[in-house]
Specification:
Layout (H helix, E strand, L loop, with lengths): L1 H14 L20 E3 L3 E7 L5 E9 L7 E5 L5 E4 L10 E8 L10 E11 L6 E9 L1
Parallel strand pairs: 2-8
Antiparallel strand pairs: 1-3, 3-6, 4-7, 5-6, 7-8
Amino acid sequence: MKKLILVLVAVAALASCGKQSESKPAPEVRRDSTVIEFDTTFKGLGMVEQAKPVDFTFTFRNAGKKDLVISEVETGCHCTAAEYPKTPVKPGESGEIKVAFDGSKLSKGRSGYFNRIMTVHSNAQGSPHKLRFSGRLQ
């Protein structure tokens, strides 16, 4: 019994000796490479009718010095589709990610709040980038 208590105390002591997490400074944005800047990374859709698809857009700008190439936009749900530029976006130019959300593709009769995250993969610093939208399905 004493051995068991000693083992438990030793395990607890070792577990509490874990390395403290160090706060890292934010990575420096290098303007001599590719940088994507979104007007916003969140869209609040408010009340959404389940049978009525909603279309909206995330606008971005290439704030770097090299062409921006978006390789993929993951929507994470069959209820969401995204269209994005398939050709490079030149430095200083803007582009759009067009999103279509169809609540009818969720479970029938489902209502309530939803929160969706899309992942944008590109050659920009900090990739992948997350875009989010939410609302209430009725």
